[in-house]
Amino acid sequence: MTDNKVLMETALPLPSFIKGKVRDTYLLGDKLLIIASDRISAFDVILPGGIPGKGRVLNRISSFWFEKTARIIPNHVIELVEDVSCLDKYLPPEERFRYPEYLSGRSMVVKRVKRVSVECVVRGYIAGSAWSEYKKTGTVNGMPMPKGLLQSQELPEPIFTPTTKGEGEHDHPMTIAELEAMVGKELADKLAEKSLALYKLGREYARQRGIIIADTKFEFGLDGSELILIDEALTPDSSRFWDEKTYRVGEAQDSYDKQPVRDYLEAIGWDKEPPGPVLPDEVIKSTTRRYEYAYERITGIKLV
Predict the structure, then answer these.
(1) Burial 220-254, CB ≥16 within 10 A → b, else e
(2) CA-to-CA distance for 51 and 53, rounded, in angstroms?
(3) In terms of residue numbers, what domain contains 55?
(4) Which of 55, 78, 112 is the last residue of a domain?
(5) Is 0.70 surpassed by the pTM of this model?
(6) In the chain, how long is the greatest CA-to-CA distance?
(7) From the CB of residue 53, how many other CB atoms can be counted at a distance below 10 Å?
(8) Residue 22: CATH number of its domain
(9) Taking every annotated instance into account, which residue ranges of this chain make up the domain SAICAR synthetase/ADE2 N-terminal (predicted)?
(10) pLDDT tier, 3 (very low <50, low <70, confident <90, very high otherwise)
(11) How far is CA 173 from CA 56, 154, 198, 227, 228, in A?
(12) Are the C-beta atoms of 197 and 229 separated by less than 8 Å?
């Protein structure tokens, strides 16, 4: 599935709620309209050009997982926008407008809730920053780990490693004590419990389809006093997906995500400061295929 045009920016006659690296969120009455663009970031810099169709893929993967995980925890989804006319009911007649067709498939109407400002990371395998820390100190997020672990090795049990959710800055690892001081012990325990349960469900489901979910991150919000899942869920942008057939302990793994982008940027010696370089066509096409392949493997649905 490839769009004729790449959606980098949105412009709706609605109050803007927040603009992220990938998603644009607008106020829609007392709800929110979240739009997944085709923007792509690397090393915290949004790159020019984008990845065609990426937003639709991410939106549909999240929608798939929100539905599948609803028995573990409620989520913020009210409606996936497949036909833009469905949006009329959220605004009074005098505030309605002609909705652009690009909203179809890449946007959803969600509840407006109070976000818990924590990235809830769960790791089932040791990779990325966790591997870097382990090599130096034998710990992950400050927690002692078994000796002798190899790169990309599966951990004895998945671990909960929260980080800060910074606005315009890098996220930083948090200890459980720091999390408890921030949100209280009861909520901290619940965040850990739900994050681990969501990861385990996703990991087992993906394994049946030949994909290893090495790690992932979740975000939560409070709908009144009820904790719910928000933002995205188990996508290639929020998770590390590996192919079970090519998985090898003791080495770095190829991921179903923007790895071709990272590899290209490292190869050209970019200083990781804005503005980012324009990506060549072969890198864009390779990255598009990875996102589409991840969706089709996970859901069993062919993108058209």
Answers:
(1) bbebeeebbbbbbbbbbbbbbbbbeeebeeeeebe
(2) 6
(3) 16-112
(4) 112
(5) yes
(6) 65
(7) 22
(8) 3.30.200.20
(9) 17-273
(10) very low
(11) 30, 21, 20, 22, 22
(12) no
For the chain, report the end-to-end CA distance as a whole number of angstroms.
5
Question: Considering its fold, how many domains does the chain have in total?
Answer: 2
Output helix, strand, coil percentages for the chain, rounded to the nearest 5.
30, 25, 40
User: pLDDT, tens digit, for every residue of 103-127?
Assistant: 999 999 999 999 999 999 999 999 9
Examine the domain organization and report whether 120 and 240 are in the same domain: yes
Q: Is-contact 27 17, C-beta < 8 A?
A: yes
Structure tokens at 147: 């000796």
Q: State the Cα–Cα distance between residues 184 and 292, nearest whole angstrom.
A: 40
Tell me: do 57 and 171 sit in the same domain: no
Q: Give me 36's structure tokens.
A: 């997944």
pLDDT digits (tens, 9 = 90+) for 196-211: 999 999 999 999 999 9
- Residue 300 in any domain: the answer is no
* CA–CA dist 185, 276 (Å, integer): 41
DSSP character string of 254-267: -BSSSHHHHHHHHH
The DSSP secondary-structure symbol of 95 reads G
Strand partners of residue 25:
18, 34
Q: What percent of the chain has pLDDT over 70?
A: 97
Measured CA to CA, the distance from residue 117 to residue 126 in angstroms comes to 25
